[in-house]
Write a structure and sequence with these properties.
With 160 residues, this protein is of the alpha+beta class. The mean pLDDT is 87. It is globular.
Length: 160
């Protein structure tokens, strides 16, 4: 990665660890991502310019209606992805995690392609290994976890 890009990533990591970011980002980042994703017919996800991202479509846990949520993800070599329910280091679990627990069969838009997936909540040693990989991938997740008492949910999604 060029020096300038490395500096930008480090600056964004520092900014995303700030408590003010946790208050503002959940209202701004997903809205921008949804708009750009819609305008580009699924080809561009704005936040994915820094971190890989998907748009998750899953039925609502209570309503049963489709819910679309842009999310950062960590692609794995096994054609799967890790999704982390950090909620930007805010107190509660993000709604999309409850939706996946209730309805693990979902769909992701990945690089303009709609892919049917199944999600599984990670636990134990498998979760520990994924957490370690996620921290190497995006160190601010450690700051998010330090701010909350809940254990941040991690899901592995795989193609159906």
């Amino acid at each position: 990665m060029p020096v300038t890009a490395t500096r930008v990533v480090k600056a964004v990591q520092k900014m995303s660890s700030a408590p003010a970011f946790a208050r503002i980002a959940p209202h701004v980042v997903p809205a921008l991502d949804r708009a750009v994703h819609r305008l580009t017919r699924g080809k561009v996800l704005l936040s994915a310019q820094l971190l890989p991202g998907v748009v998750l479509t899953v039925r609502g846990a209570k309503s049963g209606l489709p819910r679309r949520t842009p999310l950062a993800c960590m692609p794995e070599e096994t054609h799967s992805w890790l999704l982390i329910g950090s909620n930007f280091g805010r107190t509660g679990h993000p709604a999309w995690t409850a939706n996946l627990l209730a309805h693990p069969d979902a769909e992701v838009s990945w690089k303009g392609q709609d892919i049917p997936v199944t999600a599984r909540l990670l636990a134990g040693e498998e979760r520990d290994a994924a957490w370690k990989a996620l921290l190497a991938f995006w160190p601010p997740y450690a700051t998010y976890q330090a701010r909350v008492e809940r254990e941040i949910r991690i899901f592995r999604i795989v193609r159906r």
